[in-house]
Amino acid sequence: MAITIDFYVNFTKRLNSTKRPIEGGIVAKHTLTGVLKDPCSIMNPVIDIQNLPVQNAPSVMTYAYIPSFERYYFVKDWVWNDGLWTVYLNVDTLASYKNHIGDTFAYIERCAGVAQGQPGPYYDGTIIDKMYPAKNQFVTQNQVITAPWSTGWNIDDGTYILGVISGASSTNVGGAVHYYAMTQTQINGLLNYLMSDTFFDNIGFPNSSSSTAQLTHDVAKSIINPIQYITSCYWFPIDVSDITSTTDVSINVGPWTTIGTGKPLTSRVGYRQSYTLTLPIHPQSISRGAYLNYAPYTRFTCSIAPFGSFQIDPSYVPSNREVVLTIQVDGITGKACLQIGRNDQTQGLVDFFFETTAMFGVPIQLAQMTSDYIGAIKTGLSGLTGTAVAGAAFGAGGAGLAFLGTVGSALSELAPAVTSEGVNGSFIAFERLIGHYDRLTSRFVYIVDEDNAEMGRPLCGVRQISTLAGFIKCGEATVDFNAFDEEITTIHNYMLQGFFWE
Predict the structure, then answer these.
(1) CA-wise closest residue to 288 among 457, 148, 438, 142
(2) 394 Cβ contact partners less than 8 Å away, ≥ 6 residues apart
(3) How confident is the model at residue 458 (pLDDT cuts 50, 70, 90)?
(4) Residue 281 is part of which domain span?
(5) How many domains does the chain have?
(6) For a tag on the chain, would you pick the N or C end, based on fewer CB atoms within 10 A?
(7) pTM for this one?
(8) 8 A C-beta contact, residue 430 and residue 306
(9) Distance CA 441, CA 280 (A)
């Protein structure tokens, strides 16, 4: 049986490509006539070529098309036998069924690009691409955090919040205790006044050691300890105006009025501030995909005083890379809560995904120098006989006070002792050493170089194959062409293993 064959010269292609020859340029077509050898296969025909002398050996004719079979073929070999050239062909299923393949909608795992003029995208940068392993190499970036509460503070700056027992008040937020925000100058003035002779003068104890004085200051200080009415004192690295906007009022300590001035707290949460922090992107993410902005390729460590160091999960970071740091400080207990979240544009609120607490206020110990004169008097009187002396000392009618004044003069040389309220805390969390700031540390793991043209990138979506270009690998493809069983199997395997749409 005679048959016409189109042979192509200087045409090259991959085995797993849909490329077809186009005559022109260096590609030339030679149409020859041959005779099918008996028996003959359509998929793997063997044909004797007539009128092709040996001096015209067809070594450059490596590709063919048989119009009668409507198939393209790779030339497997040319064999010279008994004065004739015999050509052995293998069907090229991808080129033969290119139109059918191009019309197929398939689930595309990976692909290399978008065909000219077709809509994209041709890959999804949020899909983790495990094709390329990570290197044992990372880059570290440090970013200074300049939140309102994270700047350096001296102890002379900041704010003291004092808890004072002084009766009920409309501004009271802690039971019988009143809380006031004070500057360093204000608290110095209050404490100095409470320990001064002027204070004891003003509350009715003249500074005199004469026998006519009821009590001297030294003896009065043994009985009266105004520091005991101060229940707490915390120092905060925050300006007074940021804690409360109330005006200064007179502070009452115990039964005594107008001892000092301060701003009364009207809420337990004396301080609430937010700060927007922009997180950097992975240096390779622009060219390789947004998935590199997430774990394990990107890690964020935040160091903020006094909350210490903690991790920020990159999976919660929005596409605009902005997270919101919100701090709330309890002015009464000194505790603070730091929350990290992202703005929820649809709800108009912050979606918090991390929370930590710490002691934000620094406890301050308050002390007063006193002498236990009453104890000494009681000890001395215990050796006396008769209850009349004791009655004179501690009885009613005022005689006892006069007696104590006289005895107090004799005991004025007793060594003083210190009485205190609370304990001192540490300022080290707020110290700013040279080169040390609140900061965000970003660590980026690098991945190896890619070969997008030959291996593609993840797409993971259903697409019509003709809308793509270059390398394509399907996750699944249903092939229902009008073709031989072996041809369908071959096409299906190529689509699953990867082929080139050209």
Answers:
(1) 457
(2) 400
(3) very high
(4) 137-149+270-359+435-446
(5) 4
(6) N
(7) 0.71
(8) yes
(9) 10
- Cα–Cα distance measured from residue 476 to residue 471, given in angstroms and rounded to the nearest whole number: 15
Q: pLDDT over 70 for what percent of the chain?
A: 76
Separation CA 340–CA 354 (nearest Å) = 5
> Among 307, 289, 351, which residue's Cα sits nearest to residue 440?
307
Q: Mapping DSSP to helix (H, G, I), strand (E, B) and coil, where does residue 271 land?
A: strand
Longest dimension (CA), the chain: 154
497, HSE (Cβ side, Cα atoms, 13 Å): 9
pLDDT in tens, 108-157: 999 997 765 565 567 888 899 989 999 988 899 999 888 777 655 667 77
164 contacts 187 by C-beta, under 8 angstroms = no
**460, 322: one domain:** no
Give Cα separations from 310 to 28, 340, 384, 410, 440 (angstroms): 68, 11, 68, 62, 10
Closest CA to 289 of 110, 108, 106, 475: 110
User: In whole angstroms, what is the distance from residue 269 CA to residue 331 CA?
Assistant: 6
CB within 8 Å of 267: residues ≥ 6 apart: 173, 331
Q: Residue 237 corresponds to which tokens in the numbers above?
A: 């690295």
Which two tokens mark 29?
């077509």
87 C-beta neighbours (distance < 10 Å), count = 23
Mean pLDDT of the chain: 81
Same domain as 376, residue 236: yes
